[in-house]
Amino acid sequence: MKTNIFFIIGLIALTDLCDTISQLILKSSINSIDWHVNTVQKALRLIWQLLKLPRVWLGFLISGISFLIWLFVLTKADLNLAFSLDSMRYVMIALASVLLLKEKVSIVRWLGITCVVFGIAMVAMG
Fold this sequence. Notes:
Elements: H1 5-31, H2 40-51, H3 54-76, H4 79-85, H5 88-100, H6 107-125
Helix pairs in contact: 1-3, 1-5, 5-6
């Protein structure tokens, strides 16, 4: 029995959502730490600080969930379709960065993201 394409698209969207949430959590975790590292000792201290943050582990957990969903997707869909649709993460991360992290995205980057969206649509229709 062939897997429903809408089911596959939904799972891919879920992996993209998980990855977006994970990246937001990791970014906020990283921003909470002083990154002035100029010695090996400071680098090891930084790594230790990161490993002590529950948000970092939450980010890793969500990435792991995304990975498991992705492995399932790969068993049900052609790789070229799945990987092309997975590019929606670029759009989701850009939007989340603007809305939640208050980052600035240039017009050139938005044009690039628009090209990605059109490319995804073309691949999905093909």
